[in-house]
Amino acid sequence: MVPILITEGDPCGIGPEIVNLSQEKLDSHSREKILLLVSSNSFVSYPGWKEVGDPTKISEPGLYVWRKHALTPIEEASLQIGKPSEVSGKAAFASLAEGVELQKKLNGNLITLPLSKEWVLKSGVKGFRGHTEYLADRYSRPTYMLMAGRELNVLPLTTHVPLQKVPFYLKKIHLPSLISAIRSAPIQKEERIAFLGLNPHAGEGGKVGDEEKKILSPMISKMRKAGLNVSDPLSADGAFSETSRHKYSLFLACYHDQGLIPFKMWEGKYGVNLTLGLDFIRVSPDHGTAFDIAGSGKADPESFLQCLEWVSKALSAENSSRSIH
C-alpha cells in the first residue's frame, strides 16, 4: 500500500495546527490509506495518531506519527508556538529530510507542510532555497513548481532567485524536461498555454528590453515544435484579466511573483503547490508558516485539505490503472 507521507514543517508555525483542524477528513482517508506524519520532535501532539517505532513496517491503513527526534531535550524545550528560531528551522528541515528518506524507502507520495527558508538557513543548512529546489537536488532531476487551483494554473519558470538574475536562469532551463513536465501536468492539454513576457508590455518590440526576442521566442519555438500550443510573449499586466484568464489552461511566468501574485489573489486558500518532474506526487499548501497567527485559532486548513484531495485522486487513478492492466 502506497503511503501518504506528511512532513511537519516548522513546528512553531501553523502546520501542526492545520493537521489537527483536519482530523475529520484525515480519519476518512485513513480508512483506506496509510498516512504517516513525519515529526522531528515531541513538542507537538497529534491526538488520534498512532506513534510508530519503525515506519517501514506499517502495513494497515491508519494515521501514524514517526518522530525523528532531531532535537535535544534542551532544544525542544526552547520551542514556542508563533516564535520561529534556529531550532525550529532545524526541526523543519529534519522533518523534510527524513520525509524524503522515507519516500525513497516506501515509494510514497508527499505532502510538505510550510517551513521558513530564512530559519532553515539560520539553523545552519547551507544553500537551502525551498522544497522544489531541495527535491531537485535529492532526486537529481529538474523540478518545476506548478501552482494549481480550481480555475488557474501557473508555472513559474524560475523560483526563488533574485530578480536581477532571472534572465540568466531562464537561459539555463532544460527545455526537454520542462516540456515533459508540462505534458505531465493535470491540465487540459488541448487548450492554449500562455507565456508571459519578462518586460513590461512584453518588451514593446525591443523598446523595453530584448529578452522576449533573445530568450523567450527561441524557447517558444522549440516548445511549439514539440507539440505544445504556446502563445507568443504576452504582456503580464493584462494576461490575468477576466476575459483573458479563461483562454489558457496554463500560464508560464518568467519569475516567482509575476505568476504567484495573481494566482494567490484569485485562488486564495484553494490553491496548492504541486512539484512536476518527480516520479511521485509532492504537493504543499499554498501558504507559509504564518507565525503571526500560529496558536490563535485563526488558521484555515483548506489548502491542506486540497492537498489531501490531490493525492487521494492520484492514488485512485494509479489503483484503477493497475486493476486495468
Automatic annotation (TrEMBL):
InterPro entries: PdxA_fam. Keywords: Metal-binding, NAD, Oxidoreductase. It comes from the Bacteria. Gene3D superfamilies: Isopropylmalate Dehydrogenase. SUPFAM superfamilies: Isocitrate/Isopropylmalate dehydrogenase-like (SSF53659). GO terms for molecular function: metal ion binding; NAD binding; oxidoreductase activity. The keyword Oxidoreductase applies. Pfam families: PdxA. This is 4-hydroxythreonine-4-phosphate dehydrogenase. It comes from Leptospira semungkisensis.
